[in-house]
Queue: 2 jobs
Job 1
Amino acid sequence: MDRDSVKRVGIIVITTDKGLCGALNTNLLRMVLAQYKEWQAQGEEIEVCAIGNKGFGFMQRLGAQISSHVVQLGDRPQMEKLIGAVKVMLDGYSSDRFDRLMLAYTRFINTMKQEPAIEQLLPLSGERLGAPETVWDYIYEPEARAVLDQVMTRYIEALIYQAVSENMASEQSARMVAMKSASDNAATLIDEPDADLQQEPAGGDHQGAVGNRRRRGRRLKGTYGTSTRHHRPVHRRGHRHPVRSGQHAGHL
């Protein structure tokens, strides 16, 4: 079958295994979903390789055709864990099962900035490879096709490994920023003056005032024993205080 007549696209989607990293996965998956619907509108079929638990779950809910997946990569990417899922997609392109292979991941710019990206992995474009300034005539052993096939396979695997590494770096940066923001917001709530919770609402809204007192009471409950206010124990009417050993009731 001629590759030009194939109406099928392969895409490798790289996401994180865990959450709590802000909108990192959401931004990428939103871009992938828009491209996915555009391909479907053009009558193309899509095969997916999901790297990362978040993308794998999203593609399952979407009902996409998942050819391979790998999850639980850990904090550092390891090529031996990726190679199985990646080889399925490379073999699919080599056997003309789809006409092009795309790569979706989050590109690491700096600590405060990460960008979702969808790039064409195969066929390789001239922009990625570059054009040589001069032409050299090489002698290959074994033949040139066998050597270039091996070199190009390793090159594509290195590109995917780089994308996974950048995605993990983006994950750690986004998680650091998200946790810093959450800590700052929590500190702001803790440092709010109690007077805001005690203030009576205008118009005699006693229900709102009661709610404020209850919220204030819950906050004080967590700091009981460290507050500078004096907390006097409350005793019901008709109950007597216990008599301590060695004392008379009259001394109480």
Note: The beta strands are 8-14, 45-51, 65-70, 100-110, 113-122.
Job 2
Amino acid sequence: MKRLYYLLFLVCSSFLFLTSSFAQAPTVGLVGYYPFDGNANDMSGNSNHGIPQNGVTLTTDRFGNANKAYSFDGMNDFITCGTNINLKNSFSISFFNYTYSNTGVNPSLVSRGIPAVNQGLHLMMGSNYFRFAFYGNDLNTASGILTNNTWTFWCFTYDEATKSRKIYRNGVLLTSDTSVPCDCNSGDLVFAEIHIQCQIMASIMANLMIFVFTTEQ
């Protein structure tokens, strides 16, 4: 229960931190923080640095600040972040996204694992909906919730103790279910790549934060 409340706190505090210059980022469980401040380095102190691939370009963020976000062309751009972040336990992944187009087949924003049931995490967009998937075990929002050419804050949480899986948009819960954990620690953690049989995303991503919790936290 303590972890469940903390996951909810993370949704709210991450949203406040990423929308205000006065809030302080939560740090308990933080394993990856990517402000994309001129590079794809991990600023959590864990050195899970990202490596841009195929000409990913820096661009302006939602405040108009130059070189504070990454733009993905939807063709072959992506960022790899290595294999050190373990997503098997409870976790939270949040980021701001500005979508140009989601016309591809299952365009992916965050992915890791292999194409086998409950072994492939992918956060992706379908036909005007968002999917929080463990491969063959998916949680989808209702259709009609995606808006192109608009900055949106997304947060995805999984609580291993309660098996609760949730999707938030701009701090508001959209949908939830219960699921077995995802054993998705094979291969690199990837942003916006054709991975787990998903298509590359044509979008801008900023301020990505990843929290992981053990059963003791």
Note: DSSP finds one helix and 16 strands in the chain.
